[in-house]
Amino acid sequence: MTVLKTSMRNFLAHKGRMALSAVAVLLSVAFVCGTLVFTDTMNATFDKLFANTASDVSVGPEKDDDAQVTGKPETLPAALREKLAKVDGVAGVEPHATSKQLTVVNDKNKSLSPTSGAPTVGTNWGDSQKKSVEITSGHEPHGPAEAVLDADTAGKHGVKTGDKLRVIAAPGDFTVSVVGIATFKTTNPGAALLYFDTPTAQAKLLGSTGEFSGYGLTAASGVSDEQLKQRVSEALGSSARDYAVRTAAETKEENKKDIGSLLDVMKYALLGFAGIAVLVGVFLIVNTFSMLVAQRTREIGLMRAIGSGRAQILKSVLTEALLLGVVGSVLGIGGGIGLAVGLMKVMGSMGMKLDMGELTIKATTPVVGLAIGVLVTLLASLVPAFKATRISPMSALRDAGTPADGKAGKVRASIGLVLTALGGLALAAAAKADDAAAGSGVLAIGVLLSLIGFIVVGPLLAGFVVRAISVVVLRVFGPVGRLAERNALRNPRRTGATASALMIGLALVAALSVVGSSMVASATDQLDKSVGADFIVQSENQQPLSPAVVKAVTSAGHVEHVSEYAVVSAKITTPDGRTVTQRLSAASPTYADDVRAETVKGNLKDAYGKDAMSVPEGFAKDHGIKPGDRLKVAMTGGRPAELTVKAVTSDDTSIDQGAVYTNIATARTYLPADKMPLDFMLLAKAADGRTKEAAAALKASVEQYPQVKVRDQSDYKKLIQDQVGQLLNIIYGLLALAIIVAILGVVNTLALSVVERTREIGLMRAIGLSRRQMRRMIRLESVVIALFGALLGLGLGMAWGTTAQKLLALQGLGVLDIPWPTITAVFLGSAVVGLLAALVPAFRAGRMNVLNAIATD
């Protein structure tokens, strides 16, 4: 009880000093709990949606990952409906006619498709739809000219009943009038949904009234889903292997897999950033307790002198840490729930409306948050706590605040240098790796060892780096600058730990900046070297181009030629007797001029001849293929072909790396029309001297198709840069949490350092140091610590990024580009961070009463 009282007294006495450490714990726990609450809510919401929409038993085409992308979904014959209705135990059969490969355009020629990447779904109106949505305005669709639109899409684009919409689907374009608005009962998964009557959905989406995309079966009373599934499978007989027959539970799990992979990526990415914040927070907590122990040296010595044992001192410090961990964790759990709500609102702005009533807080979430916060705080306080137990009773005779560290020990420095050297060797080995997969593992080891090495050797580096920075930054401020330098060097271990927290976040920023910049530079370089086409025509939503679009583009004026490009699924039997699944790049012969792929054997243009093909260098090496070999090629859905290898292309590229080329006419020879994939992309070459005219003509040709974009090479380069930039901005935003925690560490270090040096500050003020000079000294000390951390972090990050780029070079991204403007901005920004972090501690130091400060023990 005495230990608890003492710990509580110390904790409350230093509540201001503990606050920043508590914020670090709070942020870390909030990120973890917020991630768990958000993903649990998403899972619960989709579970409810899938449970509401799943039929007792569903029958659909067996999923084929190798199916050709024809723009139309795989279907089942309409005659199957009658056969399923006769199965014993089937109370009802509902046919489905659904497609996710369409675009909906309003009367202003603007696409209604989601910008979040979610699909636009067209389906027939039926009982299963009534489980998830209800018509809140208008009526159900009847006839080929009517449709119902979901309320979220209608609200976002200002669509109301009576408005006309144009639907662009693979079978052709058609116009409908909105006769109803449907509102989701649970959640809108982010998709845009358009409902038609069944005959219209069949004809316009599937291309035939004799087909459906699947069937939903309702079980009769007393018949379980499993029993019905078994009976359906028996009724289908040997043809059952061509169908996917699933119970409601299996359908739900299948749907969860599709969305679950995305949720898992989000979950583990967010938890990864939370882990970085936790790691940074450890440094803050260690520094806090190290300084608190140092400041209480005399107090602890007196406690030892009056009989307190080492165990009691240890318990006292750890109890303070426990209190800090509990307070920070409890606040963090609440903050995590708020963060989850914020993420739900962000998803809502992207089109995925999540009902706040579905907010899911599992019992394990606060337990996990509390455990993380408390354990991290206790572990971080162990070293200072054990140090406190080594304070002798004689320390009661010394002044409090005596530096407890001194210079970094030789053993620590040696270990740090060894770890750094091993990390450097691992990075060098990764940079020279011949295989990207193996090299990435070595890179991970190198990153870990070099990071730990820099953290351990930080105090040793502080002595050299801080002096070097001071020569440039501090010496111009005269005696005040020299005092700031000495203060930063007074306790190298503390300076190293404070800088290390900032170093971690900035190292990741630098590494990702190098990788992102190198990816953009490499792609730009490959475009300049390899792409001879003037224009690239693609769909914004990554869907294939409809025949109408291809016809419009190929008929545009001022264009020398247009190259079609489609991706064909096939199985290739190689000379070594193996059969491998491969994607064929089926293109027009002019594609060889539009994309100049380097060959190591043969001539690529010959690969576009009759019954000819090319293979990539690695594929040829693995299977012993050489020009002149005839390979058996079975295109999915078509008749087998025998193609002659005319060229072997180099793997040293990022554009079409690993592509197997053949003439698109060859693919059409062996594939029936309904199995021939749609063009994924078109490349156009302007007539001589007609580039501007061709650009205008091409853009005019696709004006009625807002989902299709015509880009020249500069536009495409900008697209790549924007995509990489958006990804990096998201990552930087998440890393900001770790950097914020690191900044709090600098604030905490300076604040406690000011308290520790109270008498010294009083004496300096007494001999003539002004308040302004005092504040400047504190600010300069903060700046040099921040720049020290930035220099280590940016240097380490550039080494990581450079190594990662060497591995990416194996994938064709061979240009190393150091983003010096970003690196410079981050370095200068660190100085600003240092200034801001010192504002409050410097203000407090400047306001100290001189006589009271001198009288402080």
UniProtKB/TrEMBL annotation:
This is ABC transporter permease. It is found in: Cell membrane. Residues 273-393, 734-849 form the ABC3 transporter permease C-terminal domain. Residues 19-234, 495-697 form the MacB-like periplasmic core domain. GO terms for molecular function: transmembrane transporter activity. Its main location: membrane. Keywords: Cell membrane, Membrane, Transmembrane, Transmembrane helix. It comes from Streptosporangium nondiastaticum. The keyword Phosphoprotein does not apply. Residues 104-128 are annotated as: Disordered. It holds the Pfam family MacB_PCD. GO terms for cellular component: plasma membrane. Belongs to the ABC-4 integral membrane protein family. Residues 104-127 have a biased composition (Polar residues). The chain crosses the membrane at residues 268-294, 321-343, 363-386, 413-431, 443-476, 497-521, 730-755, 780-800, 820-843. Coiled coil: none annotated. It is a multi-pass membrane protein.
